[in-house]
Structure formats: structure tokens, C-alpha cells
Amino acid sequence: MTAATIISGKQISEEIRKGIALEVEQLSKQNIRPGLAVVLVGDDPASHVYVRNKEKACQDLGFYSEVHRLAAESSEDEVLALVDKLNAQASIHGILVQLPLPKHIREKAIIDAIAVEKDVDGFHPVNVGNLVIGDDSLLPCTPAGVIEMIKRTGIQIAGKHAVVIGRSNIVGKPVALLLQRENATVTMCHSKTHNMAEIASQADILVVAIGRANMIDASYVKPGAIVIDVGMNRLESGKLAGDVDFESVKEVSGPITPVPGGVGPMTITMLMQNTLLAAKRLNGLN
Ligand code: GUN
After folding, report:
1. Is 280 a catalytic residue?
2. What is the mean pLDDT of each successive set of 10 residues along the chain, which is 286 residues long?
3. Ligand 1 pocket test: which of 124, 170, 270 has the largest number of ligand atoms within 8 Å of its C-beta?
């Protein structure tokens, strides 16, 4: 069997970002500059890295950006007051509150407070509801990135059997809905699923977001299947590992994403795309 094609999220991201940069240039002629506000509460080290990467993406693409770093002891009311201010601020088109939040702050209260049209994470219940019923909405970034990567393999999604492993609100559930929207036949597996390898190995498209390093080996994969690995697990050695055992799976699979350099870079790119879209819509374009 020939070696599997590697789906490079890094390369696809670069292509999409070129298109975004062109649109930013066009918008600047109408004095519109997409603006993203990121709110980070507390000291979670991984969150600080993610937020720095978002800030850099804004700089690279010519977006306006604000990062609000609040102390871990900040109250829920303080965070809500900041969200209200950003909802009303004309220079801001996208608002992202980095998760997880400290335990004493209710994530739901904060997400519900973000203006639907500025919810570039796609986490607000109205955006989630619109996704479910197939109406236009801001799509959650990682799931939107997953679909974009599958489409760019050139393999048709319609009619295929897609299996999604993991049922989180951030990845598994929305990915399954988006695959269904693309006319795949979708099966969802999760931590309580019996015979998971048997089900997964029937998939033409396998999306894995279960949060367990290297769990999915070749016994879960049908020869030639597309494999998308959303996992980002930090090993004790400090190395980053996906949920898929890449070395064994690539021997049997079709196109497959690596970790790092797969889904990760796509998430930030889709965030930039959402912010651009929100900026256009808030200015009566698109
Ligand atoms: N923390 C980890 N992933 C995400 C994400 O996609 N959005 C937000 N807001 N926080 C996160």
C-alpha cells in the first residue's frame, strides 16, 4: 500500500490566511478593520500560549486586537461588565472568552452574555441552535476547520459513513452536525460506547476528539479512511500527542492529519475567518 497523504493544517491555514489578508486590504478601503477582543481570566499556562497565538494572528493579518488579562480572583460580575462593554464597542467585531474559566465563574453565564453576532467561538446557545437547524450562524472554529480539511482532500463527503469519537460541545457534537449538513451518514461514539473499534473501522471518515493520547490504533481504521485527529495531549515527556497513534494508523489509512501541524493551526485560522465575517456583517456587508 502506498503511504498515506498527510493533510497539513499548516499549509491549508496559510492558503486561507492569504485570502483573509486580501479581504482585509479591500475592507480597509472602506475604513473597516476587523477587530477581535480576547478575554483571559487567570493563570492557566496553556491558555496564555493560545491567547498569544491569537494575538499574533491578528497582528499578521492586520486585524485590530485587544487582549484583556484579568486576575484569577476577578468576580463573575467583573467579567460580565467587560463583556457588556465589548458588546457595545464599535471597533470590536469578535469576542472570545478563553476557556476554561476559574471555578467560581459560571462559563454559561459568560457565554450567554456575549452578543450573538460577535460570538466568534460559536458557543452562544443561539449560534448552536442555528447550527442544529441548519440556519446561518457563526460556526465553532475547530469543527469548521475539520470540515475544511476534509473538503480539501478532494474526497466527497456526501453519502459517506462518518464516525465521530467524542461528544463534547466544543468539538464532537458540532462536528457531527456539520458532517450531517454535508450529507454524510454520521455515527457518534463516546467513552461509554461498546465495540468502538468495530464501529470506527466501518468509517470512511473518522474524526477523533476524545482526549486520550494515542488511543486510536490501526484496529479502529478502515483501509483508506480519512482520519482527522483533534487530540492535543501533553505527554509527561513534554511532547504533544494526538488521540490517534499516527505511526501505526498512517500505514492503513487514507489522508490523515498529524499532531502538531494538523487541526491546531486551522482553529486559529477559522477564528480569524469568523472575525472577518462578523466585521462584514456588522457593517452591513455580506
Ligand atoms: N479553550 C480551548 N479551546 C478553546 C476554544 O476554542 N475557545 C475558547 N474560548 N476557549 C478554548
Report:
1. no
2. 87 98 98 98 94 97 98 98 98 97 98 98 98 96 98 97 98 98 98 97 98 97 98 94 98 98 97 98 94
3. 170
Which atom of ligand 1 lies closest to the CA of 121?
A: 7
Nearest residue to 39 via CA among 126, 118, 117: 118
Domain boundaries, the chain: 30-115, 141-264
Q: Tell me if 167 is assigned to a ligand binding site.
A: yes
Q: What is the number of other CB atoms lying within 10 angstroms of the CB of residue 47?
A: 17
pLDDT score of 286:
78
Report which of 143, 133, 123, 107 is spatially closest to residue 263, judged by C-alpha positions. 143
User: Is the pTM value of this prediction over 0.70?
Assistant: yes
> What's the 223 CA to ligand 1 centre distance in angstroms?
33
Active site residue 121: yes
The helix (run of H) or strand (run of E) holding residue 234 is strand 233-234
Residue in 99, 118, 139, 273 to alter for ligand 1 test, most ligand atoms within 8 A of Cβ: 99
CA nearest ligand 1 atom 8, residue: 98
Among residues 60, 56, 51, the alpha carbon closest in space to that of 24 is found at 60
Topology at the third CATH level for domain 141-264:
Rossmann fold (3.40.50)
d(CA 197, CA 195): 6
Domains 30-115 and 141-264 share a fold: yes
Class in CATH terms, 30-115: alpha beta
> Which residue in the list 121, 204, 243, 245 is annotated as catalytic?
121
- Whether the CB-CB separation of 150 and 228 falls below 8 Å is answered with yes
Angle, in degrees to the nearest 10, between helices 141-151 and 172-181: 40
